[in-house]
Amino acid sequence: MKEIIVDILTYIKTNLSDELTIEEVAGHFGYSKYHFSREFKRLTGFSAADYLSSIKIERAKQELLKQNFSVTDSSFDAGFSSLGTFSTTFAKKTGLSPREYKKQVESLYGITKEYERKSPCTLHYYSEEKNTEKNNQLSLTIHYPENYESSITFAGLFRSPIPNHKPIVGTALAQTNRHTFTHIPDGDYYLLVCSIEKTMNPLRYFVLNECLRGKVEEVLHFPSSEHSHVEVHLRPPLPEDPPILINLPKLLADSFPFRNL
């Protein structure tokens, strides 16, 4: 299955409107659902069900931002047969209901551009109250392709290799490529980074399928003496990359101390 994993991921992405199921994908490639699901997670690091659900939400985000697309249109186009299931899943993975998401795009874009104008900036985020008793730290250096101009770069430590939830510890960087995460809770994490290029197109801040990204390949364990500094080289997205579902402008507006800028 390893040699066709990219074909499998591409097939899932291109067949969402057919109310695709994992069992149907497995059958299409000649596998039982159980064997397919087990090998899929072994090869990618995330479950087939989570990947399929995340890809559907990514598609729905794209459709929602079209002026003539309603929430109902977006849900069915993304392969959801139930509007209720769509709304629940969307809110879980993005932090907003579909209607709220569509309504807040303009204001969140304005906040993001204001943050960019305040640069150079580095903001810190903790999903829970910062535990000052934990002294786990990790220094990060980000490398950009030549001639690339970044607007905002987000980096975070996640529980899952799919960034479809808020990071446990995170940062937003403008005009700087270095950061040190401090007071990291004990645990195992995936370090994921994505960068939004400077643009006047607001949609590029919400639909992140084309943004540069990078990661640390191995799982990072804390506490640990193995990793004190990591370097991440950003590159364009690959077909096998999972979607980035976080509503980054909302994370910037609500979770970071934006009012203190």
TrEMBL record:
The keyword Transferase does not apply. It comes from the Bacteria. PROSITE patterns: HTH_ARAC_FAMILY_1, HTH_ARAC_FAMILY_2. GO terms for molecular function: DNA-binding transcription factor activity; sequence-specific DNA binding. Residues 6-104 form the HTH araC/xylS-type domain. Keywords: DNA-binding, Transcription, Transcription regulation. InterPro entries: Homeodomain-like_sf, HTH_AraC, HTH_AraC-typ_CS, MarA-like. Pfam families: HTH_18. This is AraC family transcriptional regulator. It comes from Robertmurraya siralis. The lineage of its organism: Bacteria, Bacillati, Bacillota, Bacilli, Bacillales.
